[in-house]
């Protein structure tokens, strides 16, 4: 039997999340099969406006495949996906993007020959073409300062000094930041980050975590963050989902999830559970 932790999401101050806060994405019993392999196995999860949610789990647990499903990149074998009240099951990525879903890829996908600034400008052009009813911020004055221009986005992600370099000339960790900038340029409501801290130094991971917090706090984004750097992730998110062999085995505040027996056995191990036992959501 699943030992899923049935604790509702709570804010950093410990107050329960207001159930009236809109659900931006509702994944219902999502399953993705590749031939005989079930990569995602009946996963249900709701993501509400303003949440910062972590997804963890062993290699091959289905984390990326779940992201692919909830961004339209991979059509689920079964299940339902509703974004901002619209049923988008079976729709293509651009429809998810039009409903405010943006994501990064585990291997950054930037335009190597284009300048850093132009990589961002490309995404903004896309946001500009979005039908009016999908423009979430009202008129241009309603757009958070950081999302207004390529240069404001570059400033937020800390790449403003590198704007005129070709993307191929920046370091792998800067490429990750650029990919986040490209996702932000589509002016999303829901941002999906797939291992954006992979390969970074410990100091860079902390900086990345701070940037992620700022995007949620200052830009009012909902962020779902997949990462193997569990200790840091658990310090920054208020809710964490654990996937194991395609199944969701836990969903709740970090402090509860790290004590969950099934999670410890499947992923964290006792040592890690001790290390992270002090995390405060
Ligand atoms: N396009 C595909 N075709 C066939 N099998 C796939 C495909 N994509 C993923 N898989 C398989 O599905 C399972 C889940 O993979 P997925 O990439 O979602 O895991 P993950 O949790 O993101 O792992 P990691 O932490 O290593 O990134 C794995 O067994 C993987 O080999
Ligand atoms: Mg992955």
Please specify the SSE layout and strand pairing.
Layout: E1 23-34, E2 37-48, E3 52-56, H1 63-70, E4 78-83, E5 86-87, H2 93-98, E6 101-103, H3 116-129, H4 150-157, H5 172-185, E7 190-194, H6 202-219, E8 222-226, H7 230-236, E9 239-244, E10 247-252, H8 254-257, H9 261-276
Parallel strand pairs: 3-8, 3-9, 6-7, 7-8
Antiparallel strand pairs: 1-2, 1-4, 4-5, 9-10
The structure holds adenosine-5'-triphosphate and magnesium ion.
Which fold name fills CATH's third level, the topology of the largest domain?
Rossmann fold
Helix and strand run? EEEHEEHEHHHEHEHEEHH
| Main sheet makeup | 6 strands, mixed
Oligomer: single chain
Low-confidence stretches: 1-16
Q: Structural class, judged by helices and strands? A: alpha/beta
Please state the CA-atom Rg, rounded to the nearest Å.
Answer: 18 Å
- Shape annotation: globular
What's the CATH class label of the largest domain?
Answer: Alpha Beta
Bound molecules: adenosine-5'-triphosphate, magnesium ion
Tell me the count of domains.
Answer: 2
Helix content range of the residues, please? 25-40%
The strands making up the biggest β-sheet line up spatially as 6-7-8-3-9-10
Strand content: 15-25%
So, CATH architecture of the largest domain? 3-Layer(aba) Sandwich
Question: In angstroms, what separates the terminal alpha carbons?
Answer: 26 Å
The overall average pLDDT, rounded, is 87
CATH superfamily of the largest domain: P-loop containing nucleotide triphosphate hydrolases
* Number of E strands: 10
Instruction: Give the count of helical stretches.
Output: 9
